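To: structure subgroup
Subject: Chain for Friday's discussion

All,

I'm putting the inputs and outputs inline so they're searchable in the archive.
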Amino acid sequence: IAILFFRRVSFMIIAAAPPLIAIILSLGALGWLDFRLNMFLNVMTPLIMVISFSDSMQLTFAARDRLMAGQDKRQAFRNAILVVGPACVLTHATAGLSFVALQFSNSELIRTFGQAGLAATIIALVAVLTLVPLLGILLVRKETRLAGSAKGGDFAVEALRSFCRWIAVRMVSRPGLYSLLSLLLVGGLALIYANLEPRYRLADQVPDREQAVAASGRLDAKLTGANPIDVLVEFPQGASLYAPETLATLADVHAAIEAQAGLGNVWSLETLRRWLAEKTGREDVATLTEYVEMLPEHLTRRFISEARDAAIVSGRIPDIDASELLPVVDGLDEALGAVRARHPGYEISVTGLSAIAARNSADMIGKLNRGLTIEIVFVAAFIGLAFRSFLVMLVSILPGVFPIVASGTLLWAMGEGLQFASVVALTVSFGLGLSATIHFLNRLRLEERPDEDPAAGVERATVLVGPALILTSVVLACGLAVTVFSDLPSLRLFGWLSAVSMLAALFADLLILRPTAMFLKQLARRARDRRLEARPAE
């Protein structure tokens, strides 16, 4: 796509190489700093790619325009850095500060993600601002021929500019109406987004086109489930494994798990006691001890600790969503309250991978979602501060929110909920929308004239920034959409939702940001004119 529009391999390399190098440098730095890979650090690659590629494309487009206007390559790339560079710095600074805000989370994983994100953002900024002009000087040849080719027609880019001009003219023709429609649209989608619930399944984290998933499904059907729910029973000091009170506690816990709807296939020391009573008619402790000692050590260690001061009662549950699993876990914990009351001193807790995943995933996804909401407000305030304009802060809110609530509405319509992969995809799309907004506002600041209609500045800024934005969105959406062929359900979700979110961010930038900026600028100009008219009267 880049070759089609740039018509030179050199420009494709100038635009694409810095983000790739930024990713390699960032991941290398994170490894050198001893960051451990986890589900959050895996987000770093697409996040760096989105922000860096957007800035790289804007710089490349700006330099190419200067070259086609007849400037030599050194002057062209110097001017591109001077004009577009401040927006690149602000984009990365805003992303960096949003990572700093994650340090106030009470989750160690999220704080680590924030630290890694801040380091990666700094590296990416340096890589883009240094490599784009460096590669431009090294790779661009015969710039005079490039300037001459402009006379023959730059059809692909001119087509994009004509489209952007057509959009801008219509969006600024009735900015009040389009701004109101945008506000109503975002508000309606936000209400739907608010009803999304956290979703998490262990099976979504492994390839679903392998035999293991099919086997897990058969286990769910025939053995009540493949996933364990364990209840850890810790004995008070001095209590032995075979003490009557200990055995009674284990029996009560075993019975409580069996009685809990959704759980089954319960195993514990009580299972062996019942079998001995049924097959041999003996229930004495000596027989139970004898049979426990006969069992292989690896089997006894599954249910009894080596120090004989704790035991596990294990049940099975099907691989269901966390929203369905959590009520089962909470119901079991509540039922065990009566057992705790009857056996004071014994610590009884529900644990196991399924229980921990159900509790922590719902809590973590909820925190990430709230953090994303807070980040939008925080970023809007910072952008307003950077431009020293309350109006700019207001302008940046709607286009930043739209791709998130639009993608969330699509998830809701499909009967899906918020998963780790979907929150990550929304965060990445917010990064692209943020970059597009900052680049447009920076260009609008340069194109505005105090003595002319704001519509003219909006149109010029759209024509200059729009083509690079459209190309960036299309290239990234196509690249991420390839992940729909993955065997991992979570990666497929991340891929198609990221692609949809990026197209939604493009929609917001072209059809929401323009009329909103125009409308608010008109209001600000009218308020200023009224103040000027009122001064002589005073």
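Points worth raising on Friday:
Residues 54 and 523 are 31 Å apart (CA to CA).
The two ends are 61 Å apart (CA to CA).

D.
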